[in-house]
Each structure stands twice: as C-alpha cells, then as structure tokens.
Amino acid sequence: MAEGKFERNKPHVNTGTIGHVDHGKTTLTAAITKYFGKSAVKYDEIDKAPEEKERGITINSAHVEYETESRHYAHVDCPGHADY
C-alpha cells in the first residue's frame, strides 16, 4: 500500500549520468544534488549495496531526487562497468 499521495505541483524532469568507469558519474551526481537540492546527497550515500561500498564502484543503478523552486528532478546514476 502506498505511504502517501504524490502531489505533482512542479514539472518533473528525469535525468541521469552515464559514462565510462571511473569518470566521476557518482561524484557529479552528488555535486548536482548539493548545487540544486535543498539538501545534498553525500557521495558515499548514493551507492548503497555493501559490495559497492567495499569496492568503491557503482554496480547497480542508483536513484536520487532533488528539486529547485521550479522543477522536481529524478536522477539515475548508472554503473560504468561493462559487466553490469
């Protein structure tokens, strides 16, 4: 059951970071949340799986949200390894 009703009161923008391994996709995602968001998502909080934290790489796509005065953003941070 849903926790609450989502009220869309701003335009919604889907965005993401993709690129080669170790080119700073997750670092950029964290910087974007700090710049645009009311509160920043720390770099080490974006990758949540224990193996991701242990190896320092993104294995699974991660989702963060942030908003400005005029828009709501849903951001997907994608892994850069070809294996994933």
UniProtKB/TrEMBL annotation:
InterPro entries: EF-Tu_GTPase, G_TR_CS, P-loop_NTPase, T_Tr_GTP-bd_dom. The keyword Ribosomal protein does not apply. Residues 1-21 are annotated as: Disordered. PROSITE patterns: G_TR_1, G_TR_2. GO terms for molecular function: GTP binding; GTPase activity; translation elongation factor activity. Residues 1-10 have a biased composition (Basic and acidic residues). Residues 10-84 form the Tr-type G domain. Keywords: Elongation factor, Protein biosynthesis. It comes from the Bacteria. This is Elongation factor Tu. It comes from Candidatus Aquarickettsia rohweri. The gene is tuf.
